[in-house]
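Are you able to produce any protein sequence you like plus the matching backbone structure tokens because I've never seen that pairing?
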Amino acid sequence: MKQIFIPGIGASLLLMTSAFMNDVSGVKYGWQTNSVVAQTPQKPPALKLVLAAERRVLLKDQQGKQKINWQGLNNQEIVKPGDILRYTLIGENSSDRPLKKLNFNQPIPKGMVYVLQSANFTGDVKISYSIDNGSSFVKNPTIKVTLPNGNVKMQPAPASAYTHIRFYSPVIAAKTTLKFTYQTQVK
């Protein structure tokens, strides 16, 4: 059976977050154990980002009904094909001023497929997706399909085509926190 080894969840998840703040000018990055702190030069940190990953575990309750539980991933974690992972990104604005026009870009890791319609969030957020390695983002990605008669038709892109997800927040009010989640499945 094919397995994917996650050598250090903190290190590997931080590497996957490198594109979070690519659209914010004048932002300085500083890495910590499981978070990234974004700040403008010569000012205290304004936005703290924390990324966590959990694996879906199916349990049965006393009545025999199936129940979903989420188990945090730790260092040296091994995931198997078919496993569902939930990523949670928390953005905390600890400053006394609102932060405006923030894009949080998250790549879909290699060996994973985005679970369609699994994105969830708090606050005023718009979600878009990329099927071209983050070059462009749209709300509903489509692909061209050539029909047997030679005609070309546009249809929704399959989950396997998704390469990135973007959460756009027009404003994060002072002293507030946003939370974004989405799921992937191990191929």
In short: The chain has one domain: 4-186. The two ends are 11 Å apart (CA to CA). Residues 4-186 form a domain with the Immunoglobulin-like fold (CATH 2.60.40).
